[in-house]
Structures are given as structure tokens and as C-alpha cells.
Amino acid sequence: MFLMDSRLQQDSLVLGDFPLCRLLLSKDANYPWFILVPKRPGASELFDLSQEDQAQLWKETTYLAEALKREFAADKMNVATLGNVVSQMHMHVIVRHQHDAAWPAPVWGKVPALAYAPEQVEAIRARLRALLENEYQEA
Predict the structure, then answer these.
(1) Cis status, amide bond into 104, omega within 30 of 0
(2) What is the pTM of this model?
(3) Cα dihedral sign for 83, 87, 92, 97?
(4) Which residues of the chain have pLDDT under 70?
(5) What is the distance between the alpha carbons of residues 97 and 12, in angstroms, rounded to a whole number?
(6) How does strand 33-38 pair with strand 91-96?
């Protein structure tokens, strides 16, 4: 049974699901920061996923990153899987702008997290609803 790591639950909001992954929004409004979590119990590394799931993860990651780059006019997309703090397999997809709080450094720990207002979260949900309508199911 798929369960999300408690740290992911604490630090993010569930937005919806792709065929393989749960889509989360990091609770840091400094950046449009999304996280894909494959719904596969026990996966902590990319190679823990079947070849089919690996291909699907890259498909969903690429689809999301390309759509976000256009929608948020990104200067750069940061896509990474680290897992040093949260071992459950997850992929960060972060929209970066040259004027963001951490540019050009990585986003981790650079500045304190900035909480989203409820209306900001709803605005992101609405943008995603229109942007990802065919591949994504909103929570």
C-alpha cells in the first residue's frame, strides 16, 4: 500500500495524481516548487522502480517541467532527486527565475520558507487544472 513519508506530508500540499506519481506543492512560496512521488511502496531509489515505472516517471517529470517552464516563464528548471532527508523516492521540479530568493544557488536552506496564502494555493491549483488537464487528476 502506498503511503507518503511524514516529512513530505508535513512540508507539502497534495495537488493531485498522474498515472504513476502523486503531485505535491512544496510549502515554500519563494519558488513554484513541485514534487512528484511515485506511488510505489518501498521505492527509495530510481532503480527500485521497474523499467516501465522509470520510463513513466521521466515522462511525467518531463511533461510537468515543460508545462511549468512555459506557464511560469522560468529562466531555468531544476529537476532533482536527492533523498538525503526523505528516503522515499521523489522528484523535485522547481521553477527558477534569476530574481528568485536563492538564485543562482540551490533552493535548499538558502532562505526561510515563505508560507502560501490560501488564495495563492488556489491560484496554482487553477493554473494546473488548465495546464495539465489531460494527464493529471486533481485531488
Answers:
(1) yes
(2) 0.96
(3) negative
(4) none
(5) 21
(6) antiparallel
